[in-house]
Write a structure and sequence with these properties.
This protein is α/β, with parallel strands linked by helices. 35% of the residues lie in helices and 15% in strands. Strands 7-6-5-8-9 form a 5-stranded parallel β-sheet, covered by helices on one side. A 4-stranded parallel β-sheet has the order 2-1-3-4, with helices on both faces. Strand 5, helix 7 and strand 6 form a beta-alpha-beta unit. Bound molecules: phosphoric acid mono(formamide)ester (CP). The site of phosphoric acid mono(formamide)ester has 10 residues, from helix 2.
């Protein structure tokens, strides 16, 4: 793997290799602390972020690489003066050995890869994909369940613009006997292309219109935020789906809650102390999984033989 721009271009073996490295990083973090000494990595974020940017930057520093960064690139980088994404990439690749990019356009990472001479990581592209979020989501599922095969999961909320849901669906499709329940906010259903993708991969996708229709012994509930900033129909009346202590009470003691975060109000804070609420732990898994990804891409791209 030389870039990581879509969850669709990853094989199960590549994913498992990344997870094994992430496991090792969790156990032996110091072993990796000089792995990328002498390299510089750039993060350019054209959209806001807390988790993705800071966990990537933590991962870069914990691997011993140097970091250059533009937070709020839409305002503070030369995009503000009309520079194209392609020109920005052509410039930054002269300063950094890898570029990690978050951008508001769905095809931004594909465009970046076309002109880049360094590895590119998609850190979230418009309402399209967010493959590194899916990486840590599936890692958390594997960690909790002990395996990913046989996972039954309800994906809820904004399935139309929810890029984390799109990438999650793609990574889950690499595993056997996956069953996905979709319960979307009205008007924000999963786009046809993802339904067709699941059909092609022989993954069962069952649409539901209420929480009561989700099996009470399901393994995971993956709740998402409505991406208000991406709504094309500004007049759409949003009827939010809120998970709270009361409606979660009928789920089993082995049904776990995931959320890519940030949360607005779609998971009541009263659930935060429940042992089945994994979302904060899930976010923390962003560091070892992103360390594993950066380390692997850099190793393969530059033919490194770090002493690990
Ligand atoms: N999950 C996620 O992408 O969060 P941030 O927007 O804070 O990076």
């Amino acid at each position: 793997m030389l870039n990581f721009i879509s969850a669709e271009n990853v094989s199960r073996q590549e994913l498992e290799n990344l997870f094994s490295i992430a496991d090792d990083i969790k156990e032996n973090r110091q072993k990796y602390s000089k792995a990328l000494n002498g390299y510089v990595i750039a993060t350019i974020f054209f959209e806001p972020s807390t988790r993705t940017r800071l966990s990537f930057e933590s991962a870069i520093l914990r691997l011993g690489a140097g970091l250059i960064s533009t937070e709020n690139a839409l305002e503070n980088a030369s995009a503000k003066k009309g520079e194209s994404l392609e020109d920005t990439i052509k410039i930054i690749q002269g300063y950094a050995d890898m570029i990690i990019i978050r951008h508001h356009e769905n095809d931004s990472s594909q465009r970046a890869v076309k002109v880049a001479k360094v590895p590119i990581i998609n850190a979230g592209a418009g309402g399209g994909e967010h493959p590194t979020q899916a990486l840590l989501d599936v890692y958390t599922i594997r960690e909790q369940k002990g395996k990913v095969d046989g996972t039954q999961i309800a994906i809820m909320g904004d399935l139309k613009y929810g890029r984390t849901a799109h990438s999650l669906i793609k990574l889950l499709s690499l595993y056997d006997n996956i069953k996905i329940y979709g319960f979307s906010v009205k008007g924000l259903e999963l786009p046809l292309q993802y339904k067709e993708f699941l059909k092609e991969k022989h993954i069962e996708y069952i649409e539901r219109s209420s929480l009561d229709e989700i099996p009470s012994d399901i393994d995971f509930i993956y709740q998402t935020r409505v991406q208000m900033e991406r709504l094309e129909d500004k007049g759409l009346k949003i009827e939010p789906i809120i998970l709270n202590k009361e409606n979660f009470a009928r789920f089993s003691n082995h049904t776990y809650i995931l959320h890519p975060l940030p949360r607005v109000d779609e998971i009541s804070t009263e659930l935060d102390d429940d042992y089945r609420s994994l979302y904060f732990h899930q976010a923390h898994n962003g560091v070892p999984t992103r360390m594993a990804l950066i380390y692997s891409l850099m190793r393969d791209y530059y033919n490194l033989n770090p002493k690990i």
